[in-house]
Design a protein that fits this description.
By secondary structure, this protein is mainly α. The protein folds into 2 domains: 1-96, Orthogonal Bundle (Rna Polymerase Sigma Factor, Chain: A); 98-199, Winged helix-like DNA-binding domain superfamily/Winged helix DNA-binding domain (Arc Repressor Mutant, subunit A), CATH 1.10.10. The chain is 75% helix and 0% strand. It is built from 9 helices and no strands. Helix 1 (4-14) packs across helix 2 (17-39), helix 4 (69-90) crosses helix 8 (148-155) and helix 6 (118-128) packs across helix 9. The longest helix is centred in the last third of the chain and has 39 residues, at 159-197. It is elongated, with a radius of gyration of 21 Å. It starts with a helix and ends with a helix. Belongs to the sigma-70 factor family. ECF subfamily. This is RNA polymerase sigma factor. InterPro entries: RNA_pol_sigma-70-like, RNA_pol_sigma-70_dom, RNA_pol_sigma70_r2, RNA_pol_sigma70_r4_t2, RNA_pol_sigma_r2, RNA_pol_sigma_r3/r4-like, WH-like_DNA-bd_sf.
């Protein structure tokens, strides 16, 4: 089986679609999931994935084996998505990073209590409310297992700057997670107080 880098070279030299199709088969789902993490919209993530692989056909000739192909493709994916988000922001679209929502007073408390993986859901909610950059850098480090050096290459910053951003992103995630937990606790406390008041 060919390595990613060998497939790139074979495609560049021969222009045979089969080599590109193999790369597509290996990475289409990963690129889609990364796009979805950044744009949080399935239709746009699908469109972006298609656009990124279209771009890739023309960019493969510029691939230098200074980094792994997967890291290089991640960089293209990240930069394309960020460019599109900036364009949309200029057009006046709603910012994706919305404020944390306070549970409505009519929310059924049994739903909150009986959720099997409430902690995981609160953590995911906290992640969703980080900035796009914070989400990306945490995903690169802890989900994609990229090295500090690889992340620096994607963001085009120094390794020291990556470490500082990781530290700041982890701290922000911790605060967001605690905010979500406190909101639920306050809601439950209020509900219990109202129930006791009725007796």
């Amino acid at each position: 089986m060919h390595s990613d880098e060998e497939l790139v070279q074979l495609f560049v030299v021969t222009q045979k679609n089969s080599f590109f199709e193999e790369l597509y088969a290996r990475y289409a789902d990963k690129v889609y999931r990364k796009c979805l993490t950044l744009v949080k919209d399935t239709a746009r993530a699908e469109d972006f994935t298609h656009d990124i692989f279209l771009k890739l056909i023309f960019k493969l000739g510029s691939f230098k084996e200074e980094a792994r192909f997967s890291t290089w493709l991640y960089s293209i994916t990240y930069n394309y998505c960020m460019d599109q988000l900036r364009v949309n922001k200029k057009r006046g679209e709603t910012n994706l990073d919305e404020e944390l929502e306070v549970p409505d007073e009519d929310t059924d408390v049994s739903v909150l209590i009986e959720e099997k993986d409430a902690d995981a859901q609160r953590l995911q909610r906290a992640i969703d409310h980080l900035s796009t950059e914070e989400r990306s850098i945490l995903m690169m480090k802890y989900l994609d297992d990229l090295s500090i050096r690889d992340i620096a290459g994607v963001f085009r910053i120094t390794e020291s700057a990556v470490k500082m951003r990781l530290l700041r992103s982890r701290e922000n995630l911790r605060k967001r997670y605690l905010e979500a937990v406190i909101l639920v606790i306050c809601f439950l406390a209020k509900l219990i107080s109202e129930i006791i008041g009725k007796f």
